[in-house]
Amino acid sequence: MELGPRDIISRAMMTEFEEGHGFEGPHGKYLHLDVRHLGEDVIDRKLPFMRELGREFVGIDIVKDPIPVRPVQHYMMGGIDADISGATPMAGLYAAGECANVGLNGANRLGSNSLPECLVFGAAAGRAAAEYASSAKPVTANPVDAILWDEARRVEVAYLEKKGGDERIGAIREEMQHEMDTGAGVFRTKEGLETLVERLGGLRQRFSRIKIEDSSRTFNTELTSAIELDFMLELSQTIALTALARDESRGAHARRDFPERNDEKYLKHSLVFHRDAGKPRLEYRDVRVGNFKPQARTY
Amino acid sequence: MADKRITIQATRYDPDKDERPRLQSYEIPFSDDSMVVLDALNYIKSEVDGSLSYRWSCRMGICGSCGMMVNGTPKLTCNAFLRDYWPRPVVVEPLNNFPVIRDLVIDMDDFMHKLKAIKPWIIRRQEIPLGAGEHRQTNEQIDDFRQFSQCINCMLCYAACPVYGLNNEFLGPAAIALARRYNLDSRDQGLKQRLPVIADNEGVWECSFVGECSVVCPKGVDPAKAIQQTKLETTMRFVLPYGNRD
Amino acid sequence: MTNEAQAAPREYRWRMPANWWTRNRHYFLYVVREFTVVPIALWLLWLLVEIKRAGDGPARYSPHGSAAFVVFSVITLVFALYHSYTFLSLAGVIIHFKVLDRPLPSRLIVLAQFALWAVASVVVGFVLIWFAR
Ligand SMILES: Cc1cc2nc3c(=O)[nH]c(=O)nc-3n(C[C@H](O)[C@H](O)[C@H](O)COP(=O)(O)OP(=O)(O)OC[C@H]3O[C@@H](n4cnc5c(N)ncnc54)[C@H](O)[C@@H]3O)c2cc1C
Ligand code: SF4
Ligand code: FES
After folding, report:
1. Do residues A244 and A194 lie in contact, with contact meaning Cβ atoms separated by under 8 Å?
2. Largest CA distance in chain B
């Protein structure tokens, strides 16, 4: 069990909490992971960083003490729609790595696949982008430039020239994190996701009233926090909407009310379009199944 | 316990407004014993003063971006516990020996150039095609350089090095340690390409062995050792008749 | 974007404070260590002078032996020992030998260095005393 895929482990841990097991800590409930049976030699050879983290940050020695653990958000499985050469539906825009969805991970990334993904698809996207750039017709007025200037102007007006406001970025971000953990965390339900969508709407409203104290043009990290929060709220809304529409459980998406996988209806990618200010539009695209057919997870 | 408080004095500098950096004082709740200096800065930024600028990312001693001077010593602020300073105030300043861009943010371009100068990648006399398979290495061969490969580029060693502070042409501790890491790697054949940079006057020979780099290094890299070993090795290459082999 | 945004950021340049070496115990010890070479160098210069004088033949030679010089020599000896000690301890850090594919512990290397140092001192002392007779 301890070496199972993370979605299964996370669910097992949450189940323990719900059944009243676990310890109470300053950051919520936690369990103990015990690696003491491995012995000092194996730990030092295979898990030196875990030992260092325990010693430096928690004040424990994992050779002698159990490790406090709990599930957390760790990776973004979806991403910008891209093919295996990193090309997105927008000509000239390429994506690779965690921000991209090339379909490698599906609904469940397996451990250690992410860094190889960066290397393999990063190289592919780089090559494809270079090819595109060298074959594209030369343009007189660079459209990318125009987009950049528009964006710069948007940021300027939305944040740097913004007056007033009474909402703190940090407070909204923290609430968003809490709401996402509760509503779209390890286990999900229809009610929980509906509440989440509503709360995220409220947070979006509050976001329009944020206060920007830093007007400096030099290394303004409050500005970047604001821009990031804007994007994160949008992504949260996207995750909540697609999770709500998916009446099944698949990989890390575990619906309490629909515990079974439904390949007939949902062997699909969810595509979300935020074209205009209105409600995001949800579409589906079939998953291309190659040599390996989806099977029941029986472990 | 609930109303325990701690004073943080942080450097503020905005090139558009300030002639020189100054310290600003914040008194914040010290609510939980596991709080680190970075938590205090994050608290200030989200609750007290959103304009305080600093770098950080992982909060687990691995990205190397949160290095600052804490009460005069270069530290990873995500690994500097407030409980070790309380009830004294904690003075947080940008890393010594670097130009300050803003508040606690330093300009690391110089360091980046130096890292690149030592070619920190595996160099082969003849590249083999990907399809020909991997370059194999035993655990023992990894042990030869493992320590020097632990560097997270946090630059604490540069902030601790008075030689670099006095002459920033000096290649510096982390870059030399990284060069050593690759020179000791059984798969690498790039020593000759790195020698002109590391064996230069501004390379290992600028070091007068203060040793403070190894004291402050949060990852046990021991750059001072790498530098002295490189001095010995480059001298041997020069002195010994068979020394100039690859 | 406005003009300010395009202006190169004005960075605050680092300047090493003149008293940098008093700010940290290690810096201070380092400066002391570096400083020890000054008396050692002076003493060695004096040694050269003595050798030159001794070259004129044993009859006319009498070594300089004032109390002040003895004190100076003792201080220099302490400095030289300190310097040698730091140097030899370092060797354990720098040199790495492999025996049967296992790295030799650095403690062993340091001990070997000190042993060699002791042997060398005995040999030199023996030569000096033997030939002086
Ligand atoms: C704790 C932890 C442990 C992990 N362990 C493993 C592991 O053992 N093995 C494994 O394979 N994977 C692991 N992963 C996953 C893996 O580390 C990441 O998926 C991978 O690093 C992502 O790399 P990336 O380059 O795609 O994205 P990132 O490394 O996230 O880089 C994105 C960059 O974009 C920048 N950025 C964001 N927004 C903007 C903007 N608006 N403008 C300009 N720049 C912007 C960010 O600052 C950042 O530098 C782990 C992840 C975590 C969190
Ligand atoms: S050698 Fe150590 S102190 Fe220097 S940059 Fe690397 S990890 Fe940081
Ligand atoms: S925040 Fe990454 S090392 Fe401190």
Report:
1. yes
2. 71
**Domain co-membership, B88 together with B137:** no
Nearest Cα residue to B172 out of B132, B217, B232, B141: B217
B149 and B173 co-located in one domain: yes
In the 3-class helix/strand/coil scheme, how is A101-164 assigned residue by residue?
A: ECCCCCCCCCCCCHHHHHHHHHHHHHHHHHHHHHHCCCCCCCHHHHHHHHHHHHHHHHHHCCCC
Token digits of residue A187: 């286990």
The residues facing B131 across adjacent strands are none
Domain identity same for B93 and B155? no
B209 and B126 part of one domain: yes
Are A45 and B139 a contacting pair at CB < 8 A? Answer: yes
Residues B118 and B76 reside in one and the same domain: no
The one-letter code for the residue type at A258 is F
Q: Which two tokens stand for residue B246?
A: 């690859």
* Residue A6: active-site member: yes
Number of domains present in the structure of chain B: 2
Chain-wide mean pLDDT for chain C? 82
Complex-level ipTM? 0.90
Sign of the Cα pseudo-torsion (B34, B40, B44, B45, in order): negative
Residue A271's DSSP bridge partners are: A283
Give the mean pLDDT of A46-66.
Answer: 93
Domains in chain C and their CATH numbers? 18-89 (1.20.1300.10), 95-133 (no CATH)
Ramachandran region, residue A219 (left: φ > 0; alpha: ψ -120 to 50; beta: rest): left
Q: How many Å is the Cα radius of gyration of chain A?
A: 22
pTM for the complete prediction?
0.90
User: How far is A63 from A249, CA to CA, in rounded Å?
Assistant: 38
Q: What residue type is assigned to position B71 of the chain?
A: N
What lies within 8 Å, CB to CB, of A12 at 6+ separation is A1, A4
Is B234 among the domain residues?
Answer: yes
For residues B47 and B122, state if they share a domain. Answer: no
Residues on chain C touching B222 (C-beta within 8 angstroms)? 93
Domains of chain A (ranges; CATH) run 5-69 (3.90.700.10), 139-261 (1.20.58.100)
Nearest beta carbon to residue A216 from set B42, B47, B51 = B51
Measure the CA–CA gap between B179 and B121, rounded to whole angstroms: 9
Side chain identity at residue C50, one-letter code? E
The encoded tokens of residue B167 equal 């002459």
Instruction: Tell me the residue ranges of DSSP E strands in B72-185.
Output: 73-76, 90-93, 100-102, 105-106
Closest-CA residue to B61 (of B49, B74, B77): B77
- Pick the closest to residue B246 from B168, B176, B194 (CA basis): B194
- B196 to each of B179, B200, B231, how far by Cα in Å? 12, 6, 13
Q: Give residue ranges with CB within 6 A of ligand 2.
A: B 151-157, 173-174, 177, 217-219, 221, 223
| CB-CB neighbors (< 8 A) of A169 in chain B | 46, 50
Of A89-93, A132-136, A220-224, C90-94, highest mean pLDDT:
A220-224
Number of residues written out for chain C: 133
Task: Using only the alpha carbons of chain C, give its radius of gyration.
Answer: 25
pLDDT digits 0-9 by tens, A238-247: 999 999 999 9
